[in-house]
Amino acid sequence: PEAIMVGELANRMAERVADVVKALMQNGMMVTQNQTIDADTAELIVEEFGHRIVRVSDSDVEQVITTSEDKPEDMKPRAPVITIMGHVDHGKTSLLDAIRNAKVVAGEAGGITQHIGAYQVETEAGQKLTFLDTPGHAAFTSMRSRGAQVTDIVVLVVAADDSVMPQTVEAINHAKAAGVPMIVAINKIDKPAADPDKVRAGLLQHEVIVEKMSGEVQDVEVSAHTGQGLDELLESIALQAEILELKANPDRNAEGAVIEAQLDVGRGPVATVLVQKGTLHQGDIFVVGEQWGKVRAMENDRGERVKIAGPSVPVEVLGLNGTPEAGDVLNVVETEAQAREIAEYRAQAAKDKRAAAGAATTLEQLMQKA
Ligand code: GTP
Ligand code: MG
Prior knowledge:
33% of the residues lie in helices and 28% in strands. By secondary structure, the protein is of the alpha+beta class.
């Protein structure tokens, strides 16, 4: 059974096509990059390159995890990545700001400006937590569809004076589809019209049963304005994170996900990358989506220059040849030639796909006219 094109296999492993073709030759197979190989052969090659394969069905190599397998003994604890989601105006940004300000050293508070849409705080107990500034539902969905699972925990913010709204339901569905545990933050508890039990009842209708209703989902009453419940919320997050036992190997080539990216007038393309595995170093060569680059400089969430960034650390990366998209996966590779080849392959593949889609539409239009 045909399974995967050689070029596509190389692409998914972030390896050079020539190297994959060579490996196939050494296994007695003479193929070019546009030929397909079966799933068993693909698996053999993938393992030879030290990657891991995930099969969707017997004959279909749907996904090759583009990372080498890490040995259990190399796995070290990492900070949880938390995404705050919820309906418009329910206080997501306010809550993030309140958490950040509460955790910033006194006296520094006013002076700290957030530079990137992600940051790390440290709790009293010394636990580090990485927060993603709500990337919006669209970005979250697109990241998920690209296989970039960036978040470990979703904090669902629901305003106590407003209860469950359409985007609350969307967020619940996203979290469930992604299989990510949820913590409910019932916000604006300081408001006279606050009715937290109404929120709990509203959630129940969407099969989110909070602890106060004898369920398993942690719920915390908070106020971004007064700071009430913030410590409890952080404790809930830390508890949830502990259960997840999150680990990553920091001593390998970095892999990460683009949280946001833009073209900066003075600095060129800039991407905020959440490192998920390994450690990203200044000078590393990487491929990210259809772009590639060499890390020229990195800045942390406080705008400070850093030379390295380990698992769960968000950094702003400079040195890209183009602007990637949110959700694109970054892989560090060995050589510039390799990076360029993979990026070009991906760009061409995307172009072909668009052209094919365009041709199909034209044909359809012609048929309709006929
Ligand atoms: P979008 O990003 O537009 O979806 O909104 P958001 O969810 O980020 O809400 P945001 O933090 O911007 O807050 C919306 C409004 O609610 C602002 O006017 C806040 O001042 C107010 N607000 C947020 N949290 C609280 C709270 O705990 N208590 C009270 N009283 N008001 C709050
Ligand atoms: Mg906001």
